Amino acid sequence: MHAGECVALVGPSGRGKSTLLRCLYGSYGIDSGHAWLRPRAGVGEAAPPAVDLAQAHAHEVIELRRRALAHVSQFLRVVPRVPALDIVAERAWQAADGSLEREAAREQARAAAADLLQALNLPRPLWSLPPATFSGGEQQRVNIARALVVPSRLLLLDEPTASLDAGNRRTVIDLIRRVMAAGTSVVGIFHDEEVRDALATRQVQLGETADRTHA
Ligand SMILES: Nc1ncnc2c1ncn2[C@@H]1O[C@H](COP(=O)(O)OP(=O)(O)OP(=O)(O)O)[C@@H](O)[C@H]1O
Ligand SMILES: [Mg+2]
User: How many angstroms separate the CA atoms of 197 and 190, rounded?
Assistant: First the structure.
């Protein structure tokens, strides 16, 4: 797929949409076929080679997730005892390219995280609290902020607006459009037709599988 494209995966519940995203994220192995990802070059770096997500070693997957690949899961896995701002800033900090002093990089990461949480309308008193007690929609926005805080090559979205009200849904659509315009490709699952129509440049219908091992 091309830079800036958004492919929506369509199909009934249980058809394997989330599973396909987990394969692309490197969480599940792939028995056949290829999924090539060409990471972007960093400032002053040579273009990195394309990586086949179907064959990638664990350390390659970890490196891709640091700077090229992001996943907003259908269900948030809350990191215990870590404040919302740090959950978002940590990813930005881990992706920093080493051109800044450690403290300056940390500050820059926290500023980027704060900008995103603000854009996503997460109330400021929540920023210093761990998201375990947050509402579904608040947790979902932390999850989205963590995925967007680093400009990925490929963004995987599993029902990113499922718990959001209309206003927050529109904010998320705007933010995703912005990262697409900046060259990020998106593969997403959007049950909400309004969101799908607003974002998808192409739809892929998942077919019936012939060899299901359980029914
Ligand atoms: N790790 C796993 N081991 C065994 N079966 C799994 C695993 N993950 C998913 N499945 C099964 O694969 C099928 C597809 O699941 P998946 O979560 O991908 O569906 P989906 O299309 O995302 O559905 P929904 O729209 O309800 O989210 C389901 O029957 C599910 O139980
Ligand atoms: Mg699913």
Answer: 9
